[in-house]
Amino acid sequence: MPSSNPHEPTSQQDRTQSEKTERQQPSQRRSKSAEEIADAYADVADKLARWRQLDRLFAGQYRRRQFEHANGRVLDVACGTGRNFRYLSRSSEVVGIDISNEMLGHARDELDRLGLDGTVRQMDAQALDFSENSFDTVISSFSTCTFPDPIAALHEMERVCTPDGEILLLEHSRSDAAPLAWFQDWRAESHYEKNGCRLNHDPLKTVEQAGLTVDTASTAFLGLVTTIVAIPSR
Ligand SMILES: C[S@@+](CC[C@H](N)C(=O)[O-])C[C@H]1O[C@@H](n2cnc3c(N)ncnc32)[C@H](O)[C@@H]1O
């Protein structure tokens, strides 16, 4: 079960946070371009699609818990191969966007397989081609780790979400368990070079930096998984 993660930081949490910041790897400070990220995912799209069952085994429970109550018109930002689609309510209308056409090809197949009424479009999460207040719920999973500018993408999610809507995020994060965190720090640089993903990032900190109002947040699986429910701050 996820453990609760209170938002009022204690002094211990403050210390831990600043230690984390000092430990930041280069991969947390710089970014690949959107084109480089798109190329990286084009190369692995087929492989990721084949790992569908594995993803269901490890991430399925978190996806279900975080997204099953998404309602109305739902935007899945950086939907990838469409792994969240199966956990969405049949009554919702889903729109998925991603920078990678190769990933979107699999997302289209997933919509067909599930018989869902939805659409997918190629788009940059940092410049969404939707007007303000277009979606009742904005969801995104394992994505802020790859966005060249995650704060810009979070601002866009906030902009297109209705003022009384929700932004639901599921992210991987730096572990609370020291050996795992050490391993993530050690691998961060090469993982970013290869996959364009910041292995040891802190998604809650990024959401707070973006100025979104965090309603609830929790961690699970030794802190490797973070779920966040945010609401637009405007
Ligand atoms: C780790 S995958 C996660 C995919 C999916 N959300 C999931 O949970 O399986 C990250 C996704 O982010 C997409 N992405 C990265 N940068 C993006 C951007 N600027 N705009 C839109 N999608 C982007 C990648 O193409 C990739 O599909």
From TrEMBL:
Residues 1-35 are annotated as: Disordered. Residues 1-15 have a biased composition (Polar residues). One of its GO terms (molecular function) is methyltransferase activity. It comes from the Archaea. Pfam families: Methyltransf_25. Keywords: Methyltransferase, Transferase, Ubiquinone. GO terms for biological process: methylation. InterPro entries: Methyltransf_25, Methyltransf_Superfamily, SAM-dependent_MTases_sf. The keyword Methyltransferase applies. Residues 74-165 form the Methyltransferase domain. This is Ubiquinone/menaquinone biosynthesis C-methylase UbiE. It comes from Natrinema hispanicum.
